[in-house]
Amino acid sequence: MKRAVIAFLLMLIGSASLNAQKKTISGYVTDSESGEPLIGVAVLDKSTSMGTVTGNSGFYSISLEPGQRTIVVTCLGYDEKTIPVNLNADMTLNVQIAASSDLLSGAVVTGSTPTSGARASQMSAIEVPISQIKAIPAIGGEVDVMKALQLLPGVQSGTEGTAGLYVRGGGADENLLLMDGVPLYNVNHLFGFFSVFNADALKGVTLYKGNFPARFGGHLSSVIDVRLNDGNDSEYHGNASIGLISSKFNFEGPIVKGKTTFNISARRTYMDLLAKPVIAFVNRENREDDLNYEEIGGGYDFYDLNAKLTHKFGNGDRLSLSFYTGDDAAHVHMDDISTYEIYEYGPTGPHPSGVMEKNRDRGKFGWRWGNMVTSLRWNHIVAPKLYMSSALSYTQYRNKLSVALSEYSSKLENGAERDGVTHTAEVAYNSLINDISANVDFDYSPSVMHDVKFGAVATLHSFKPGVVSMMQKASGYVDEMNNLKTRREVGDAPLSTREAALYCEDNWAVLPWLKLNLGLRTSLYDTDRKTYLSAEPRLGARALVTDKLSFKASYSEMSQYIHLLCNSNLSMPSDLWVPVTSRIKPMRSRQSAAGVFYDLGKYEFSMEGYYKTMDNVLEYKDGASYLGMATGWEDKVCMGRGWSYGLEFMAQKKIGKTTGWIGYTWAKAMRQFDRPGMVINDGNPFPAKYDRRHDLSATVTHAFSKKFDLSATFVLSSGNCGSLGYDEFNSECLTGLGPEAGFSTWYYGATYVPYRNNYRMPMYNRLDIGMNFYHKHRRGRGMDVWNLSCYNVYNHRNPFLIVVDWEDELAADGTGWTTYPVLKKVSIFPIIPSLSYTFKF
Amino acid sequence: MRKLMMLSAVLMCMTLLSVSCEEVIEFNGDYSGEKMVLYSCVNPDAGAVMVSLSRSKFFLSREEGYLDRPLSGADVKMTVGGKQLVLKESPDRRGLYIADADVREGDAVSVEASCAGLASVSSETVVPKSADFEILSTYSKIVERNAYVQIVEKHFRVRLKDDPSKRDFYRFYIVHRDEEGEMESETALTSDVIFRKTSDMDLIEGALDGETCWRVEGIWDDSIFSGEDLILDFWAEDVMFNGDEMYMYGSRDVSDVNYHSYYSDWGIGIDTVSEDVYKYESSLEDYDSTMGGLASVFGEPVCIHSNISGGIGCFGAISPSFRFHDFPEL
User: Fold this and answer.
1) What is the residue extent of each domain of chain A?
2) Are A824 and B23 a contacting pair at CB < 8 A?
3) What is the DSSP letter of B51?
4) For B322, which residue in chain A has the nearest alpha carbon?
5) How many CB atoms lie within 10 A of CB B298?
6) Spelled out in words, what is the top-level CATH class assigned to the domain A108-231?
7) What is the structure's pLDDT at B151?
8) What one-character DSSP code corresponds to residue B273?
9) Per residue in A391-400, pLDDT tens?
10) Closest residue of B to A800, CA-based?
11) β partners of residue B109
12) Which of A626, A729, A748 lies at the smallest CB-CB distance from B56?
């Protein structure tokens, strides 16, 4: 390994010296209308067809022989631009390209795919443009990035409606979710039914399922790279939407034209506001007595806010400040109100005092969780061939689950309350993660044959993995001695861990038909008096057979130092992120993939196969629950291994009035936990919860005109796995002394589950349809967009979970009722029509 | 527009409310039919072997009473150390099959059972060697005394010698002997045992902490101390009641109260159990404490261990051993 690294570095140095006489053209490629930097734009020298692709900041650098050159700038969805250049010295060439006239006339473009396609060296990666995500029909009309990613081959969704992603047999926690390069811990709103990504604030999303570039690390199964819009640098633009679930707005524009831009977007639900009158009505209807009655209450809301400020200065320098915050809050309470007359005790015994007392006993359950992310990024052109992007970032994830009981009592006098006294007892479960991170990334282009990326990242994690706080409070007493407040916390002590990584990768055009991506990432994690070090090689190769056909292969190793302890049934916000410890080791994965890619311009076909092994994956022991996990979580989990393999097919139409894709995945995902003291399922392999053999998804959008487009999504997949006992039996206890040692007569009923996840739920299928109506204002530049969508058009009741229930039946002789067991599927999303209105300006 | 949005919201709510979210479905799993349920645990001190047979019930069956489905008329054979035995059904209990047998430590034992209408079952086990342990020291102290009760802590220090060549499984409990020298029945083995917390024995203490119930708690494997001597420090509480009066009013000098202990001898029992017994009892404990994983919607399911080929249940072996100590009066 050491020799290989040295040889690789020598080769790079040699390549750089050979190219010393060449001249470099570098600069940014931006959208001519908005000034937004464009990612994945190909910048080529026409005579040699050699070139490069712009990175996340829209920067490119290309070194060519001096002389008269013709630079061609191409990007799907944009008009090609050809620029003659007299190249005598290093030069800066900032290029603005305009959106394709086809696009303006109503055609839709999807899959701006520098990371996919036959010519790209990258495999197992898909870039989904925001325009396509917005066109896909969604629950309640709420556009969702994660839901769109679930439609891609190799990606399984969790339980119906949830935003969980299970990529190539990995777990929900094995996805690195980056928002402008900063990791997010929880991307769920509404218990996972929506993600925190507000599509109005986004520029693009790229999903990596394998062949991970060395610049990414820390999670095993996927990288979801979400980038925020910088903001228009010449004009103010915005939009405001009203939907059935939430309303949102987005506003962007220049603060200083051409230099400083802003982009701000916010979203809030109003389910709590809609629920209030319904709850009030129910309470009114249920109240039979004004003195003694019960009331229920509750609500749910979420909000998120994205903001980004970008300033351009100097020679291509950019400074950007990104901020995101979002919270979910759910609460339910039940009040028991009672009013009675106080009795006094006298010499003749108790007698009514004539004073009424009113009591309100309240039980309240609350749940709040959210993220906050902020980052300061500086992009700087160090030299024409060397580009630097550095960032300081802060991430916080918090959640609090609380149960409170309170009692309020007061005297009633002429209908007015006085002398109120309150007693409150609350038990809350809190967890918190704070990350402070610094990273620096360099992009070095010594020649057209090499594109080298290298950098470093260091992160300080602070975990408060699970703390239970107990609070007691009394107030309102005249005598201050009785007014008290006590608070106590129990749980694991806060834990600080340190993570650092160095990486280097080279996208090397060895021959015109052969491209290699060679990378190495080394990472270090210091925790709990133990330091883990790992080297993660990354290899990728593309062999271009013809201009349209290529074969690709890759090998990636990944390490993950943070685990998510989650129940296998649902992805909950209270799922606990915990670091590796001296007992719980880092997860590691090895993934090999190979594929064939065929590109017909408008159409793109691909087939990939993969085999992945995962080591030190975690799963709860039989019967374990994350509740009560304040301490000793290491004893409730098992560490084992997993493996998955599959075949993925994708056919995609990228341009034209009709666009979309069809994806099919055949896959298998298994787990095995057979280490001493960490045994599940008797140590035998069992299917992973989201092991689905078949998964077909298709999405299509057709633009009938500038005023109307129609989209549809169809999903058909094998059901999820679950554990279901098929046999009921007597379970006897093997104990005792003397001749009866074999067993006792003590027994009780149990159900026998032959192995974990033995039962497969019924097949999942669904069709969604969405329509967009556009109306451009005759005066001004505003536009109305009406979205009418329907989720689950044919109302198929897809299983959310399976339960054994009891039904009643009139006995055959009509003399009474008998009960019998039945298997029921519980579904949560029937047909859901929705409407939303957006005003764009 | 407002009207349109309101109408749409109402329509959405009506749709959500009107469409039932539960539906009875056909079972589509791979179910092979009712199974024979076999339990047996051979014991070197028993002088006999017993097998309990019953039958399972399909979970969607409309038949009631799965708690009482003993299986009569079965053919049950057992091979102990190469000698085949035919077990006969007990006249006192349906589904219980018995034969005299001389089981020794290290014996390989197998069982086969067949009955019309059910698949035949079989299993095998090896009788483990009994535990090698000794009581190193003891002491007792009074921790509470009042007019009604006296609580005495009986402290033990025990050394267990583990065989490093193989994985062993143990069950630990407190044993009592009454004044006639008879060992108490299993229901007596419920004294609370409290272990001293040490930093390196969390696993064992986690399993043993609290009540060493006669059923499954206190069962553990030697994975964290394999090959080394295990020193266990613990105590049990002897709750001694006033033998004179059950209720007394007001305060009273406790010096003359005649506290009565139910037990004279206190001892330690350590069973060596076969791996399948360990797995079965552990899974049963998980099942019991979580209602099969259904106690919490956030809980994981529990698969009860079975080593019965063709059926359900557990066939294993237990080799008990005891050490007693007569605590002096305090």
Assistant:
1) 2-101, 108-231, 241-723+758-810+825-840, 724-757
2) yes
3) E
4) A737
5) 21
6) mainly beta
7) 80
8) E
9) 999 999 988 8
10) B21
11) B80, B125
12) A729
At residue A572 the predicted structure's pLDDT band, cuts being 50, 70 and 90, is low
Residue in this structure with the two tokens 């002789």, named with its chain if needed: A813
What's the CA gap between A337 and B92, in Å, rounded? 59
Give the Cα separation of A213 and A453 in Å (integer): 9
- In whole angstroms, give the CA distance from residue A810 to residue A528: 63
How many Å separate Cα A165 from the centre of its chain?
Answer: 7
Look up residue B19 and give its DSSP letter: S
The answer to whether the beta carbons of residues B160 and B238 sit under 8 Å apart is no
Q: Is A719 at the interface with chain B, CB within 8 A?
A: no
| Chain A stretch 611-630, residues whose beta carbon is closer than 8 A to a beta carbon of chain B | 619-627
User: Which residue do the tokens 């060992």 mark?
Assistant: B183
CA of A141, closest CA in chain B: separation in Å? 11
Superfamily of domain A2-101, CATH level 4: Carboxypeptidase-like, regulatory domain (2.60.40.1120)
How distant, in Å, are the alpha carbons of A113, A638, B130, B171, B284 from that of B208? Answer: 59, 20, 20, 9, 16
Determine the longest span between alpha carbons in chain A, in angstroms. Answer: 117
Greater pLDDT, A346 or A767: A767
Question: Taking the CB of residue A418, how many other CB atoms lie within 10 A of it?
Answer: 9
Q: How many residues does chain B have?
A: 330
Phi-psi region of A58 (alpha: psi -120 to 50; beta: other; left: phi over 0): left
- Nearest partner of B323 among B278, B281, B280, B265, judged by Cα: B265
CB B66: neighbour CB atoms within 10 A? 20
pLDDT at A8 (0 to 100) = 54
ipTM of the complex: 0.77
C-alpha distances (whole Å) from B274 to each of A115, A673, A793, B83 are 57, 21, 57, 20
Measured between CA atoms, how close is A534 to chain B, in angstroms? 27
Alpha-carbon distance of B106 to B126, in angstroms, equals 6
CB contact under 8 A, A835 and B4: yes
Task: Look up the CATH number of domain B36-126.
Answer: 2.60.40
Q: For A780-812, write each residue's pLDDT tens digit.
A: 678 898 989 898 899 888 888 788 888 888 877
Q: How far apart, in Å, are the Cα atoms of A383 and each of A59, A170, A315, A503? A: 12, 41, 10, 20
In contact, A499 and A523? CB cutoff 8 Å: yes
Domain with CATH 2.60.40 in chain B: 36-126
Long-range contacts of A85-91 (CB under 8 A, 24+ apart): A85/A25, A87/A23, A87/A25, A88/A23, A89/A23, A90/A23, A90/A24, A90/A25, A90/A26, A90/A384, A91/A23, A91/A24, A91/A25, A91/A26, A91/A384
The closest CB to that of A728, out of B43, B56, B221, belongs to B56
Does the distance separating the beta carbons of A749 and B67 come in below 8 Å?
yes
pLDDT of residue B204: 45
pLDDT tens readout for residues A129-164:
787 888 888 777 777 888 888 899 999 887 776 657
Higher model confidence: residue A611 or residue A118?
A: A611
pTM for the full model? 0.79
Give the closest-approach CA distance of B148 to chain A in angstroms.
32
Contacts of B45 in chain A (CB under 8 A): 738-739, 741
**pLDDT tens-digit series, residues A382-439:** 988 899 999 999 999 988 888 888 888 888 777 777 777 888 888 887 888 999 999 9
Question: Six-digit token pair at A506?
Answer: 């080279």
Q: What angle do CA A102, A104, A110 make, to 5 degrees?
A: 65
Strand B312-326 and strand B36-42: the pairing is parallel
What is the separation, in whole angstroms, between the first and last Cα of chain A?
57
For domain A241-723+758-810+825-840, the CATH class is mainly beta
C-alpha to C-alpha distance for B158 and B173, rounded to whole angstroms: 12
